Amino acid sequence: MAAYMRVAFMLTSLGIGGAEKQAIALAERMHARGHDVLVLVLSRQLGEEWPAAVEIVHLGMRKTCWSVLRGVRRAVLVLRAFRPQILHCHNFHGNVLGRLLRVALPSLSVVSTIHNVYEGGWLRMAAYRLTDRLSRCTIAVCDAAAKSALQQGAVRGACRVIANGIDLTEFVPSRARREDTRRAMGVADEFLWIAVGRVVLAKDYENLLRAFALLREIHTRAKLCIAGEATSLYAECMIALVGELGLARAVRWLGLQHDIASLLDAADGFVLASAWEGMPLAVGEAMAMEKIVVTTDVGGVRELLGDSGLLVPERNPRKLAEAMRRVMNLADCPNTQRMQRAARDRIEQRFTMEASVTKWEQLYRSVAGPKA
Question: Nearest to residue 267, comparing CAs of 243, 293, 304, 306?
């Protein structure tokens, strides 16, 4: 039996996002495999966070020098007590701070993770470049993110890829759950589109809403439900846009939702309209639920989707509407049903959570420091 490891994870926050969900899932599965696991979170505890079945330490950092210094001191003390062989960092702030901690903890083996093709402007890329040597390796969640990091000079050497994984025990289609959820949502025979993701600029909900308005000119009974935190100024603008486009009765804002599997069961189609992405979990989860996916061709979406869905250019509402119309027009044809089954098959064969965890575990063993 392979020896256990002591692995610490570092994240900017535990807010409801794909990178955070993936990191917590990885930490929980490493713990389930017998490893000692600790999660360090730079921010204070938020009102809504991913639940976690591992030890969490919030460093309580805010945007002040004193708060950051106090958080760094606490991180050093916590890590010295835990004695990790690996510090696996996520997101820009987690990656950079984790690397800088090697000044106080020189034997620490730091692994950095790039979750998006866009991690920030030139200042952030310079910070990545200057601290790159402090990381044992940098891993991207998709080929597109790795290529972007190399092109922007964020990584000096190689950038390996370990794709995000999907939990196939959580995302299992259920006809009974579909009927129950549609009944609870008040959906009868309408074609229901689902979009999942925080209402932020990257997700380009303006693109989606304008596309949906065009779609409704032909398919007047189409409905759209949007599941995701909608508390930003951008979200307020999007809510106002729904009224301007005359979609108030066709679009529902569901807010933050934890039972995404039930919503996907209820859906007839899944749509993502993002301007940029890494490897979006929501697309993989929809595929696992055997949904036809219509998505913009951004980030690692093409790698994930293969030929089991429809890709369109970003920031093009007309092309997005045309693809959504094609799906609706062919909803009951045999080819559509084959695409639905192929979507789950692709996840089962290439993007399971267990396979992803095994790859991370193998990487940890290859770069782990000595056990204290």
Answer: 293
CA angle 218, 222, 225 (to 5 degrees): 140
286 contacts 294 by C-beta, under 8 angstroms:
no
DSSP code of residue 350: H
How many C-beta atoms lie closer than 10 Å to residue 73's C-beta? 12
CA-nearest of 44, 48, 45 to 61 is 44
Q: Which residues contact 339 (CB under 8 A, 6 or more apart)?
A: 292, 308, 309
CA distance 293 to 284: 9
The pTM is what?
A: 0.94
Number of Cα atoms under 13 Å in the Cβ half of residue 298: 22
**For residue 332, which phi and psi values (nearest 5 degrees)?**
-105, 10
CATH superfamily placement of domain 175-350: Glycogen Phosphorylase B; (3.40.50.2000)
What is the H or E stretch that residue 104 is in?
none
| Extents of the domains making up the chain | 6-165+352-367, 175-350
6-165+352-367, CATH topology level: Rossmann fold (3.40.50)
How does DSSP classify residue 44?
Answer: P
Residue-level length of the chain: 372
Residue with tokens 């027009």: 329
Instruction: Please give the chain's pLDDT, 372 residues, in tens.
Output: 578 999 999 999 988 788 999 999 999 999 999 999 999 999 988 777 777 889 999 999 998 999 999 999 999 999 999 999 999 999 999 999 999 999 999 999 999 999 999 999 999 999 999 999 999 999 999 999 999 999 999 998 889 999 999 999 999 999 999 999 999 999 999 999 999 999 999 999 999 999 999 999 999 999 999 999 998 899 999 999 999 999 999 999 999 998 999 999 999 999 999 999 999 999 999 999 999 999 999 999 999 999 999 999 999 999 999 999 999 998 878 888 899 999 999 999 999 999 999 999 999 999 997 765
Best CA proximity match to 372, nearest among 85, 98, 40: 85
Q: Which two tokens stand for residue 151?
A: 């092109």
6-165+352-367 and 175-350 have identical folds:
yes
Radius of gyration, alpha carbons of the chain: 21
Cβ atoms within 10 Å, residue 152: 19
